[in-house]
Every structure is written in C-alpha cells, then in structure tokens.
Specification:
- With 389 residues, the protein is mainly beta.
- The chain has a single domain, classed as Beta-galactosidase, Chain A, domain 5.
- The strands form three sheets. Strands 1, 2, 3, 4, 5, 11, 14, 17 and 18 form a nine-stranded antiparallel β-sheet that branches. The chain has a six-stranded mixed β-sheet with strand order 6-7-8-9-10-19. Strands 13-12-15-16-20 form a five-stranded antiparallel β-sheet, with no helix packed on it.
- A hairpin with a 5-residue loop joins β15 and β16.
- The two termini are 16 Å apart.
- The structure holds copper (II) ion.
- The site of copper (II) ion has 6 residues, from β10 and β11.
Amino acid sequence: MKCLILRVLAVLIAASAGQAIAAGADCATWGGTLLKWPAAAPVWEMCWVRPSQSVASDGSGLELRDVHYKGILVAKRLHAPILFAEYRGSSTCYRDWKDANANFAATPPVRNQLGVPGTFIATTTCDVSNAATASYQNCPWNTLPGSTFTSADCIGGAGGVAIEDMGDHVVLTTQYSASWYQYTSRYAFWENGDIQPEFGFGNSNGTNNNLTHWHHNYWRFDFDIDGSDNNEIRANGVPQSTEFTGLRSLTGGPGGGVTYWDVVTTKGGFGYRIVSGNGDYTPANESGRNFHTVDVIGSRFINNEYADRANNNLGDCEMQAGNIANGQSIADTDVVFWYRTSVRDANGNNWPPNCSGASCEPQNSMVCKSGGPTMTRIGDWPIYRNGFE
Ligand SMILES: [Cu+2]
C-alpha cells in the first residue's frame, strides 16, 4: 500500500510539473509485437517488427517502435530504410530492398519471442562468413568448415527475429536478403540504457565479389526523448538550429571534427550520445563516385519521410542527403538523426587505386564486415518515476 501511495504521489508530482508521465510501449497503437525485458521487471519496452512488415518504400529492415527505457520514451522508431551497394570500375550500383526476410540460425526458445538461447546464440550469414573467398550459401551453411549447424537450427523460410535474453542485455537479431546479399540487423539493449545497433553486410553465393565494392546502410534513429517535442541535436556538444549533414572524425574534438552527436530533450537536458564504432570509419565517398558523401544527417521530423526519395528504385544509386537536410529548423522540436555505416570489400588487385601486387589490399571480399555506433544515456534521466526506483 505504501508503495502504491508513493507511486500515485510520484505521478501527481510529475503531472503537476508538466513532465511526461512514465509509460510503456503501446503496440496496439504503433503495431508490432511487444517486448518487455527483463520479463520479470522490465527496463526496456518496445514493439518489434520483422523486415517484411517494416515501413518505408521497400521496407526498413528490423524496425523497433515506441522504445521506452524505464518508462521514459526514447525513440518513436529505430530502423534502416536506405541501403546501397556500389562497385569500383563499373557503372554498377544498387539501391537495395529491405523487406525480404531471410533464414538464419537461432535456437527455438528465442524465435520471435524472448527466451534464453541455450546451445548457441543467433547466427547469421554474416556471422559465419570469415573466409576471403568462400561462399557458404544459406543456413545451415553446409560448406562451412567444421560447422555443426543443421537445418533444424535455422529459423525457417518465413524468417523472423531472434530475441535473446543475455542476462544483462537483450539482443534482437534478424537477417534479410536482396538477391545474393544477406544483411544482418541486430540491436543490443543493455540494462544500463546503452543501445548498440549492428549492421552486417553478407553475401551468400559470391556474386560480384570479383569487384571491389562498398556497402552503405543508413539508419534512421527517430529519437523522441521523453516525448516528440522539445528535442535537439548537438554536434560535439553544440546545439544545431538548422538541418545539417556531417562527417565523423576519429581524431577531432572541440573546434575540430565531430566525434559525437547528442539527441536530448531541452526540458531536462537528458538523452542519448551517439559515438561511432571502430567499423564505421570507411570514409565518405571513398569510391570517388560521389554517391555517398555524408556520414550523418540531422533533420526535422516529417511524417512518412523515411528516406531521401519517395521510391526505392534499384538504379537510384546516389544518396541525396540534401532532400532530407533542406534548411528546416531543428531547434527545440521533433528531430531525426540519420547515421551511415559502410564497409569496403576488396577484390585483391585494385584497391587502393593504382596499386599493384603486394601494394593492393589482399582479397577480403567474402569476409563479412559489420559496424554500427554505440548510443549511451547522458544527462540526468528521471528514472525514478513510476516505480522504477
Ligand atoms: Cu560485399
């Protein structure tokens, strides 16, 4: 009873102070399947959506909606609606689709439900692809040396999402295909509030791995810290007032290149810091084709603006960031942060440019590469509301 009185009191105080009242994920409104983790005393709540059901033109991969941490809204939507492959020394390039569920390995207790994984953790084509030139085809990757996977370990033709309770964090994993490419999308949500998105760029049969090429994934992080209004984006701590594009810097800092971005609520100053991962430093426009020239975009939220283009035509190979960052105010409003992770797959004889023999990067095109930022809580979060003391 005492606890209930305290809780009612806390809600009344929060309401009178004009603060949002703590809440959980509302999947009846947002769609998707409710995940509460840990099951007994949840700190994370969200609605998850498999690639085939995701929003945006030709999908947006693994999509998470109405994400809450300890009763406070973190994000309206986390997803990856823009995806490309581009090739060196050829006119070929693709804007890929993101809505074709694909097969990967996951133990039955974690298939499309929260569970403890047991004998192995969710494993994708990217996860097993560690050889320079080998193609392992599809789960259970019968040509993988030493593999113990069997077809019963594979999640099945309809695909889905593995949701693994790892004790101090929960991991959501899925795989989707665009022809021979097999993309891993994975998120870890930690007890302390950290979020780690990971994107892996796999290939099932080796097609086009004789060409040095790049893959680009653009996440769309629609943060809504403690509500959709009154948010702002800071670059190296500096609030941004207008939509922007930017480049990441490994060695920058105050006055120099941007090494981190924050999305915070101006009412309370708390939010998330986004720091690039080690795998994310493939430079913008490394191919020289001028298709991918920015690492991040800060934009104002616009309903149904999920990409730089309204369609997803396979041949539209240029990321037109200026269609998203086109001069609108982003001060103290509903904002979206876009983040590119790219990798390079080298064929062994033409990278870097003008290389020959031993001066070329050895072939690594079938070694699956992955990357992604780390997002950590910053500021003074009101995590004591609504019984989360
Ligand atoms: Cu590749």
